[in-house]
Amino acid sequence: MIFNRISGVVRMVKALFTKREGYIVLMTILIWVVISTINPNFARPLYLLDMAGYNSVYYICALGILPLMIMGGIDLSVSGMILATSMVVTMVLSVVDMPLQLLILVAMCVGILLGLLNGLLISWLKVSSVIVTLATLAIYRGLTKFWFQQTKTLELSSGFIHASKQIFLGLSIQNWMIIFMILITFLILRYQKIGRSIFAYGGNQELAERKGFDRFKTTIFVYSFSGFAAGLSAFMHILLLGQANIEAYSNLDFELIIIIIIGGLNILGGYGTVLGTFFATTFMVILKSGLVFARIPAFWHNLLIGAIIVTIVSYDMIQNKLVIKKRINQWEDQV
Amino acid sequence: MAQYEKRLSMLLLAVVVTGSIMYPSQFISWTTFKIFTHQIPEYGLITLALMLVMIASGLDLSVVATTTLAGILGALAMEKMEIIGQFSVLIGILVMLIVGMSAGALNGFIVSYIEVPPILTTLGTMLFFQGIALIVSKGGSVSSFPDAFLYLGNGSVLYLPIPMIILAVLAVVMHVILTRHEFGRQIYRIGRNKVAASYSGIPVKKRLFQVYVLSGIILGIAAVIMTARYNSIRVDYGSTYLINGIVAVSLGGVDIKGGKGTVIGVFLSLCILSALMRILNLADVEAYLSDSIMGGILLVNLIMQHFMGASKKNKVNKAV
Fold first, then answer.
1. Would an 8 Å CB–CB cutoff place B289 in contact with chain A?
2. 3-state SS assignment for residue A74
3. Dihedral Cα B143, B148, B151, B153, nearest 10 deg
4. Are B70 and B49 in contact (CB under 8 A)?
5. Residue B245: what are its φ and ψ, rounded to 5°?
6. Do A149 and B123 lie within an 8 Å CB cutoff?
7. Does A8 touch chain B (CB under 8 A)?
8. ipTM
9. What is the DSSP letter of A149?
10. pLDDT tens readout for residues A205-240
11. CA distance linking residue B228 with residue B220, whole number of Å
12. Which of B257, B292, B306 sits opposite A142 (nearest CB)?
């Protein structure tokens, strides 16, 4: 009985290492152990939860663009959508007073609408998602900044902030939202028909079409989902700061793509997991605070992040090529 | 001239006429001409570099980062070599060109030989180059250069500013290469269909690498002009040129899928955008809003192209 259980655990660990996202899980644990030995405070679970809460925008958005990137698209307008949504939400709040639950709905709806626009444009025009989302990023960001030029930040009432600091079952609202997002993304990707369709289109577009998956519906869904995540994280952003800041998250879009890639996404499409994304986000969050802890000047951050992305992606491609070569060799041997 | 370029020149005419009706005394003036000749060169060079890569079905998000990195490293070299006098200018220019070239070579190597998708490659190298530039310059600006260097950015021959002359010469050279030369034809074929190109005997990887190196050299020249014109260089200079460059390239008829686009089209779209910017400037439109307008133009252009393409397809179907 006990032996069975042990062998089960061993099998699970083995499976983890043979998967693409195995190494990021390892790296995350490693970096956590290293920083914890330097600074014991870091090892406290409460601190980790706090850190996740403060960086909930990263978690939510990364999970939000995961389906889209599995399908082979890219969304550069996430930061623009967050900006626009948080501004709209604070504006609504300054006109009519409403409870938290209603406000979160408003934020989600605004986000979904903005994402829907991206999805419609991409599926109608059949152009690269990079170009379309770059255009919508410029539009969202420019319009929001223009609108709110006089009021750089919009403050919220203190009662609102107090409501946001409630703790439920030991976890803050931010932590609950991350859990909610993980669950919803996992369920959609694993058990819904639309999730299967996303993987199918990421793997092979022609085959997916012949199988009868609806391309229009899938594209629309995927970009709306990213908008939904942006709306949700705009709400988190407001709750965290107690205000909406128009200068926030200027580099977010690129960082999100990096997170997804180091989370084990196949850059040729068709593979990506919630687990990998979650650990990659944690890795980035720890690394970022770790860089500060280790007194590496902020000037170095860009260089390091850029070097990491290029190395990992190149490694990935070389590995892919080797696998293909191996298979061809095996096939030739058999023949 | 192709159909699309005719349409672009009509659009240019429409924009100019609108501008001169709205602001008769200010739009058609010496000042506008001066602003044009000052604004277009570096913008144009960056756009040309982008165009070259996009014809070969690539994309380069690191154009602006490459330009500022080359500018900063060249400027620092010039500062260090100040003792040897005017000769340091030559060294500075050389450093800028070499840095641009090697940045292009890095991009080209990763994209063509390792076969990483260009978007991801150039996204990474963009951050990487920005990082190097930040570390080297410590976030500050490098400024005050010898007069001979400044002459490159601000001097003029026969009322024509030197940057404009450099741009014109480069544009003509590129036009000739792309239309008359075997190299250009091969690039178009690679952009249209990589597999078919490689089966017809074109060394696809080598050509792609060369395209990125060539665009890197153009960016090095852009760095020279940019640094000389402002008499200083900093990491965040020209940060709007990326989105503006993509808008110009897309409006100029270059397809992101590759294989399409001409120097004439891109040049016309540059003129249209500059004229539009001048009108917005005269109308006192906020800088933030003009960013949005750029994005809007890009979208409208994509939608227009889509419908034009759709109507053409219908015609073909009917004919069949």
1. yes
2. coil
3. -50
4. no
5. -65, -45
6. no
7. no
8. 0.76
9. S
10. 888 888 888 888 888 999 999 999 999 998 888 877
11. 12
12. B292
Short-list A130, A125, A128, CA closest to B310: A125
Greater confidence (A43 vs A77) lies with A77
Per the rule left: phi > 0, alpha: psi between -120 and 50, beta: everything else, B57 is: left
d(CA A258, CA B123) in angstroms, rounded, equals 9
| Residues in A touching B137 (Cβ below 8 Å) | none
Tokens representing residue B276 in the block: 């539009």
Give the mean model confidence (pLDDT) for residues A26-54: 79
Kindly give the pairing relationship between strand B142-143 and strand B232-233. antiparallel
- DSSP letters spanning A182-201: HHHHHHHHHHSHHHHHHHHH
The pTM for the full model equals: 0.82
At A160, list the tokens.
């609102």
Give the separation between CA B113 and CA B93, rounded to whole angstroms: 29
How far is B28 from B31, CA to CA, in rounded Å?
Answer: 8
Residue A258 sits at the vertex; the CA angle it makes with A253 and A263, to the nearest 5 degrees, is 130
Instruction: Give tens-digit pLDDT for A78-112.
Output: 988 988 888 888 778 777 777 777 888 888 999 99
| Average pLDDT for runs of 10 along chain B of length 320 | 79 86 79 80 90 89 91 89 79 92 93 85 88 85 81 79 89 92 90 88 91 94 90 80 85 82 90 86 78 84 76 50
Task: With CB atoms and an 8 Å threshold, state whether A135 touches B298.
Answer: yes
Tokens of B134: 């930040």
Task: Provide the CA B254 distance to its chain's centre, in angstroms.
Answer: 12
The pair of three-digit structure tokens given for residue A85, joined into one six-digit string: 């949504």
Stated length of chain B = 320
User: B190, B56 in Cβ contact below 8 A?
Assistant: yes
How far apart, in whole angstroms, are the C-alpha atoms of residue B29 and residue B33?
7
- Please name the residue that has the structure tokens 């170009």: A131
The residue whose two tokens read 């090697």 is B102
Query: Which residues, listed in sequence order, are joined to residue B157 by a DSSP beta bridge?
Result: B160
Asked if A219 and A118 touch (Cβ cutoff 8 Å), the reply is no
pLDDT of residue A164: 63
